Amino acid sequence: MFPQFLEGWALILGASSGFGEACALSLSEAGMNIIGVHLDRRGTLPNVERITSRIRAAGREAVFFNVNAADAEKRAAVLDEIAARPGVTGGVRVLVHSLAFGTLKPYIAPTESDVISRPQMEMTMDVMAHSLIYWTQDLVRRGLMGEGGRVFSLTSAGGSRVWKTYGAVSAAKAALEAHTRQLALELGPLGISANAIRAGVTDTPALRKIPGHEEMMELARKKNPHGRLTTPEDAACAIVLLSHPKAGWITGNVIGVDGGEFIVD
Fold it and tell me: What predicted TM-score, i.e. pTM, was given to this entire model?
């Protein structure tokens, strides 16, 4: 449990599972109200209800939207509603981009149907990388985020390393890191920081969709100096700490939160 040293609102993209869920819960424990954007079918909505109940039990507000975060019209509608809520204008202090939806197909295969298509590649890049820019642009343009704001993206070792069928996601992670650096440059004069959090291999619903994820997790356990996988809570704790009002000078970085996993060959 965190001491309550934060205030205002955090906007979490991908708030219903994995890193997004952990960030929503940890930031609420630290004192923030949570706006969550997620895309869930009826079968997974009970988990969303569990998350919002825990946030409210911590004495915080939870406003969640079940929409496609990469859709421009949906983004505008969410931000319209946020802007209309009393006490939110200028109060979105933290944006967490934790969208994990992309195509896991190889670039090269014997038949055309087995390889990634142009629409699949463009969708992966748009959802997992470019959407960070559009949400940040709109938050700043609308005056919903100002001085003292924090922008966080969730990346992985896949941004600089390879794995079978992970090519498009790897490209998106690399682009996400580049976007984060550029945002740090352009948001600096506004007093807003931007950092990418490079979590280690973490057992999340997104990871379990990757072919060969069991091998990936076993390799990570063997090489990690701590002998375990990273957890979503590990990454969330780092984001909470970097959201401290005194941490604004930390910006433009890809910050490893992996127990030293990345540095071990």
Answer: 0.96
Instruction: Give the H or E element holding residue 187.
Output: helix 167-187
CATH number of 9-258: 3.40.50.720
User: What is residue 87's predicted lDDT score, i.e. its pLDDT?
Assistant: 77
Radius of gyration of the chain (CA): 18
Extract the runs of DSSP E, i.e. beta strands, from the chain. 9-13, 33-38, 62-66, 92-97, 150-156, 193-199, 254-257
Sheet holding 254-257, edge to edge: 62-66, 33-38, 9-13, 92-97, 150-156, 193-199, 254-257
How far is residue 260 CA from its own chain's centroid? 21
Q: How is the chain split into domains, by residue range?
A: 9-258
- Taking the C-alpha atoms of residue 220 and residue 218, their distance in angstroms, rounded to an integer, is 5
According to DSSP, residue 131 is labeled H
What's the first-to-final CA gap in the chain, in angstroms?
A: 34
pLDDT in tens, 186-231: 999 999 999 999 999 999 999 999 999 999 999 999 999 999 999 9
